Amino acid sequence: MRVFIDSNILYSAIFAPSGTVNRAYFKAITPPNVGLISEQNIAELHKAFLRKSPDKLDALKRFWTKASLILKVVPIPEESTAAEFLIRDSADRLIYRAALHADADVLLTGDKDLLESGITRPLIVSPAAFLELD
User: Fold this and answer.
1) Has residue 134 got a pLDDT over 90?
2) Long-range contacts of 111-114 (CB under 8 A, 24+ apart)
3) What pLDDT score was predicted for residue 15?
4) I want to staple 38 with a disulfide (CB 3.0 to 4.6 A). Which of 50, 71, 98, 100 is the partner?
5) Distance of CA 16 to CAs 25, 56, 96, 113, 126, Å?
6) pTM to 2 decimals?
7) Cα–Cα distance for residue pair 95/9, rounded to 1 Å
8) How far apart (Å, rounded) are the C-alpha atoms in residues 87 and 130?
């Protein structure tokens, strides 16, 4: 399964190593699954660390050293899609667009704007719901 991982999942996986989000992250990157992210995810993760946890940038560096060997970075197409306008937050539309372009089966997120969009391709799920998928 091709799993596009939102930046909020990455952030939480770093800080809650024994939680549901971390288990979902590891399921997403464990073969036969393929973990996908975009450059925007990387930028958002870095911004979140600077804003919320500037004293923990070393944790981000350690995480990224490992994650960069596993995660596949995919581009964000410039052209919008009709479905993305179902997403309230325009920044989240780019995440959806990247997941769609990468032919992701699942978009793993904790973001309500994505989860409540009603979009079904790719399937947009929370960490708990993702852990229930086969």
Assistant:
1) no
2) 111/6, 111/8, 113/87, 113/88, 113/89, 114/6, 114/87
3) 85
4) 98
5) 11, 14, 25, 22, 16
6) 0.95
7) 13
8) 20
